[in-house]
Amino acid sequence: MRVTKRFLKAAARQRGGMIQEYGLYLLIVLLVVCGIYVMYASSSEGETVTSLRNDLLSLSSRVKGDYFGQYGGVSTQTLIHSGVFKGLGSFSTAVGGEVVSVGGGYITVSPTMVHIPDDAMQYKIITLPDSACVPLIAGMQGVSAVVTVNSFIAKSPQVPFTPGNVQCSGDNNIVTFSIL
Description:
Keywords: Membrane, Transmembrane, Transmembrane helix. Helices cover about 45% and strands about 20% of the residues. It is α+β, with helices and mostly antiparallel strands and about 180 residues long. It has a 7-stranded antiparallel β-sheet. Helix 2 packs across helix 4. The longest helix is centred in the first third of the chain and has 39 residues, at about 5-45.
Protein backbone atom coordinates (compact mmCIF):
# COMPACT_ATOMS: atom_id res chain seq x y z
CA MET A 1 0.00 0.00 0.00
CA ARG A 2 1.35 3.33 -0.99
CA VAL A 3 1.08 6.32 1.38
CA THR A 4 -0.17 9.33 -0.47
CA LYS A 5 -0.97 12.88 0.48
CA ARG A 6 -4.63 12.08 0.23
CA PHE A 7 -4.26 9.21 2.77
CA LEU A 8 -2.34 11.46 5.21
CA LYS A 9 -4.99 14.19 4.96
CA ALA A 10 -7.77 11.68 5.64
CA ALA A 11 -5.90 10.31 8.66
CA ALA A 12 -5.35 13.84 10.03
CA ARG A 13 -9.06 14.62 9.66
CA GLN A 14 -9.95 11.42 11.47
CA ARG A 15 -7.82 12.31 14.51
CA GLY A 16 -9.69 15.60 14.89
CA GLY A 17 -12.97 13.79 14.54
CA MET A 18 -12.11 11.48 17.42
CA ILE A 19 -11.46 14.43 19.73
CA GLN A 20 -14.79 15.94 18.72
CA GLU A 21 -16.51 12.63 19.43
CA TYR A 22 -14.96 12.48 22.91
CA GLY A 23 -16.15 16.02 23.55
CA LEU A 24 -19.66 15.06 22.45
CA TYR A 25 -19.65 11.99 24.73
CA LEU A 26 -18.46 14.11 27.63
CA LEU A 27 -21.21 16.64 26.99
CA ILE A 28 -23.86 13.90 26.94
CA VAL A 29 -22.58 12.45 30.23
CA LEU A 30 -22.59 15.92 31.77
CA LEU A 31 -26.21 16.51 30.69
CA VAL A 32 -27.27 13.14 32.13
CA VAL A 33 -25.57 13.92 35.46
CA CYS A 34 -27.22 17.37 35.57
CA GLY A 35 -30.61 15.81 34.82
CA ILE A 36 -30.20 13.28 37.62
CA TYR A 37 -29.22 16.07 40.02
CA VAL A 38 -32.23 18.19 39.05
CA MET A 39 -34.58 15.24 39.57
CA TYR A 40 -33.02 14.53 42.97
CA ALA A 41 -33.13 18.17 44.08
CA SER A 42 -36.75 18.62 43.04
CA SER A 43 -37.88 15.64 45.07
CA SER A 44 -35.66 16.25 48.07
CA GLU A 45 -36.50 17.89 51.35
CA GLY A 46 -34.74 21.06 50.18
CA GLU A 47 -37.71 21.97 48.02
CA THR A 48 -40.08 21.30 50.92
CA VAL A 49 -38.06 23.57 53.22
CA THR A 50 -38.13 26.30 50.58
CA SER A 51 -41.92 25.93 50.34
CA LEU A 52 -42.21 26.14 54.13
CA ARG A 53 -40.09 29.30 54.19
CA ASN A 54 -42.19 30.88 51.44
CA ASP A 55 -45.41 29.92 53.22
CA LEU A 56 -44.13 31.34 56.52
CA LEU A 57 -43.31 34.60 54.75
CA SER A 58 -46.79 34.66 53.19
CA LEU A 59 -48.38 33.87 56.55
CA SER A 60 -46.50 36.66 58.30
CA SER A 61 -47.46 39.10 55.52
CA ARG A 62 -51.12 38.13 55.79
CA VAL A 63 -51.08 38.50 59.59
CA LYS A 64 -49.31 41.84 59.35
CA GLY A 65 -51.78 43.07 56.74
CA ASP A 66 -54.87 41.93 58.63
CA TYR A 67 -53.88 42.53 62.26
CA PHE A 68 -51.15 45.20 62.35
CA GLY A 69 -51.39 47.15 65.59
CA GLN A 70 -53.86 44.61 67.02
CA TYR A 71 -51.54 41.67 67.66
CA GLY A 72 -52.75 41.25 71.27
CA GLY A 73 -55.88 39.37 70.21
CA VAL A 74 -54.28 37.10 67.61
CA SER A 75 -53.86 33.36 68.16
CA THR A 76 -53.48 30.27 66.02
CA GLN A 77 -57.20 29.52 66.39
CA THR A 78 -58.11 33.10 65.38
CA LEU A 79 -56.05 32.71 62.22
CA ILE A 80 -57.55 29.29 61.44
CA HIS A 81 -61.10 30.63 61.79
CA SER A 82 -60.36 33.69 59.67
CA GLY A 83 -58.85 31.54 56.89
CA VAL A 84 -55.34 33.00 56.97
CA PHE A 85 -53.76 29.53 56.54
CA LYS A 86 -55.82 28.72 53.42
CA GLY A 87 -53.79 28.26 50.28
CA LEU A 88 -50.52 27.73 52.15
CA GLY A 89 -49.44 24.22 51.14
CA SER A 90 -46.99 23.72 53.99
CA PHE A 91 -49.79 23.76 56.57
CA SER A 92 -52.84 21.56 57.00
CA THR A 93 -55.60 21.89 59.57
CA ALA A 94 -55.89 19.11 62.15
CA VAL A 95 -57.72 18.68 65.45
CA GLY A 96 -54.89 20.22 67.48
CA GLY A 97 -54.18 23.15 65.15
CA GLU A 98 -52.11 23.63 62.03
CA VAL A 99 -49.75 20.77 61.12
CA VAL A 100 -46.46 21.63 59.40
CA SER A 101 -45.59 19.48 56.37
CA VAL A 102 -41.90 19.31 57.34
CA GLY A 103 -41.56 17.09 60.40
CA GLY A 104 -45.28 16.73 61.06
CA GLY A 105 -45.25 19.04 64.07
CA TYR A 106 -47.48 22.02 64.80
CA ILE A 107 -47.16 25.73 64.28
CA THR A 108 -48.47 28.12 66.90
CA VAL A 109 -48.89 31.83 66.35
CA SER A 110 -49.07 34.27 69.26
CA PRO A 111 -48.26 37.89 70.09
CA THR A 112 -44.87 38.53 71.67
CA MET A 113 -42.64 41.37 72.78
CA VAL A 114 -39.47 42.49 71.05
CA HIS A 115 -39.39 46.15 72.18
CA ILE A 116 -42.82 46.77 73.72
CA PRO A 117 -45.68 44.34 74.57
CA ASP A 118 -47.52 42.89 71.56
CA ASP A 119 -45.31 44.61 68.97
CA ALA A 120 -44.48 41.38 67.12
CA MET A 121 -45.92 38.00 66.22
CA GLN A 122 -44.17 34.79 67.23
CA TYR A 123 -44.33 31.81 64.87
CA LYS A 124 -43.32 28.66 66.76
CA ILE A 125 -42.70 25.40 64.90
CA ILE A 126 -42.56 22.24 67.00
CA THR A 127 -40.86 19.01 65.85
CA LEU A 128 -38.74 20.50 63.06
CA PRO A 129 -36.26 17.89 61.76
CA ASP A 130 -32.55 18.54 61.88
CA SER A 131 -32.22 18.50 58.08
CA ALA A 132 -34.71 21.38 57.78
CA CYS A 133 -33.63 23.38 60.83
CA VAL A 134 -30.59 25.30 59.57
CA PRO A 135 -31.92 25.99 56.03
CA LEU A 136 -35.22 27.32 57.38
CA ILE A 137 -33.51 29.55 59.95
CA ALA A 138 -31.07 30.86 57.35
CA GLY A 139 -34.02 31.72 55.09
CA MET A 140 -36.11 33.38 57.82
CA GLN A 141 -33.51 35.23 59.87
CA GLY A 142 -33.53 38.24 57.53
CA VAL A 143 -37.18 39.09 58.30
CA SER A 144 -37.16 38.01 61.95
CA ALA A 145 -36.27 40.28 64.86
CA VAL A 146 -35.70 37.31 67.20
CA VAL A 147 -34.93 33.68 66.33
CA THR A 148 -34.65 30.93 68.94
CA VAL A 149 -33.77 27.28 68.50
CA ASN A 150 -34.49 24.91 71.38
CA SER A 151 -34.53 27.91 73.78
CA PHE A 152 -31.13 29.18 72.55
CA ILE A 153 -31.14 32.67 71.01
CA ALA A 154 -29.82 32.53 67.45
CA LYS A 155 -30.68 36.16 66.70
CA SER A 156 -32.05 39.14 68.61
CA PRO A 157 -31.67 42.92 68.53
CA GLN A 158 -28.62 42.44 70.78
CA VAL A 159 -27.27 39.23 69.19
CA PRO A 160 -26.51 39.34 65.44
CA PHE A 161 -27.23 36.20 63.46
CA THR A 162 -24.35 33.84 62.86
CA PRO A 163 -24.74 30.20 61.80
CA GLY A 164 -22.73 29.21 64.89
CA ASN A 165 -25.59 30.42 67.10
CA VAL A 166 -27.94 27.87 65.53
CA GLN A 167 -27.92 24.75 67.69
CA CYS A 168 -30.27 22.24 66.10
CA SER A 169 -30.17 18.76 67.59
CA GLY A 170 -32.09 15.71 66.51
CA ASP A 171 -35.41 15.68 64.71
CA ASN A 172 -37.42 17.31 67.48
CA ASN A 173 -36.34 20.97 67.30
CA ILE A 174 -38.49 23.85 68.51
CA VAL A 175 -37.89 26.98 66.44
CA THR A 176 -39.47 30.41 66.97
CA PHE A 177 -39.43 33.44 64.71
CA SER A 178 -40.54 36.79 66.13
CA ILE A 179 -41.46 39.12 63.28
CA LEU A 180 -42.25 42.80 63.87
